[in-house]
Amino acid sequence: MNLLTIDTSTTVCSVALTRNGALVAEFLESRGKTLSARLLDCAGMLLEGSGLAMNDLEGFGVPLGPGSFTGLRVGIATVKGLALALGRPVAGFSSLAMLAMNLPWAAHPVCPMFDARKREVYTGLYECRDIPCPLVSDCVIAPEAFLERLTGTVIFVGEGAVRYREPILDRLGERAIFAPPAAHLPRASAGAILTAAAFERSETLSPGAILPLYIRPSEAELARLNPPRP
Q1: What are the helix and strand counts (H, E) for the chain?
Q2: Which of 75, 87, 115, 125 has a CB 3.0–4.6 Å from the CB of 160, allowing a cystine?
Q3: Host domain of residue 88
Q4: Rounded mean pLDDT of the chain?
Q5: Which of 172, 94, 161 is nearest to 128 (CA)?
């Protein structure tokens, strides 16, 4: 089964092509901005280099959130458009689970962290085996408050963990393990494992049913909920 997974949930842009669960090709670029204009070109490049056409794809995968509001919209809209045009199903999954998938078969629980700004992080806690199993659901929270929930040794991964390294060490000390630098980047190839697992379990959705899971309301939503007083 040929599957294409696209991730733009953060400032890292990545696309992965898999065949029967094996990685065929991957594009990844981190420039501090969402490279939305290049997504289709990157997908086409991977397909051409692998001797495939867009019609050869049997499904798509995309993280639904949490993450950058703009980035999530770009990735989901791109996958929706491709899946609608081809009449293919889509697998949606947590962007934090995808990041945790950088550390499969970890000996300790994995805590993925994205910087959510406003002195908060998007985070959760996962037991990582062949695929991540959530121990604490994804949330947006002050890092210090989330650290109070953790017991035992925990592996931290992601740019949020890098930013809040000192508070993590202050709270957990030797119980905090940090992933190597290369693991902090979310990768579509890790998400591709979740895509394949969803297809194997027949847990896919029609393109129109794929919606972002922001966790935190956007500034526009907050403005609608709390209009300025006259």
Answers
A1: 8, 10
A2: 115
A3: 2-96+186-225
A4: 92
A5: 94
Q: What is the CA radius of gyration of the chain?
A: 18
CA distance 30 to 185: 8
**Is residue 11 pLDDT above 60, yes or no?**
yes
**Could you tell me the pLDDT band of residue 30, with boundaries at 50, 70 and 90?**
confident
Strands 110-117 and 120-128: antiparallel
Q: How many domains does the chain have?
A: 2
What does the pLDDT read at residue 32? 58
Q: Which residue has the tokens 């992601």?
A: 158
**Same domain flag for 27 and 109:** no
Instruction: Provide the whole-model pTM.
Output: 0.91
Residues 28 and 86 in one domain: yes
Copy the structure tokens of residue 102: 């950088």
Residue 223's pLDDT band (cuts 50, 70, 90): very low
For the stretch 51-61, pLDDT in tens is 999 999 999 99
Same domain, 46 and 159: no
CB atoms within 10 A of CB 32: 7
- One domain for residues 80 and 111: no
**CATH code (residue 84):** 3.30.420.40
DSSP string for 123-174: EEEEEESSSEEEEEEEEEE-HHHHHTT--S-EEEESHHHHHTHHHHHHHHGG
Domain for residue 42, yes or no? yes
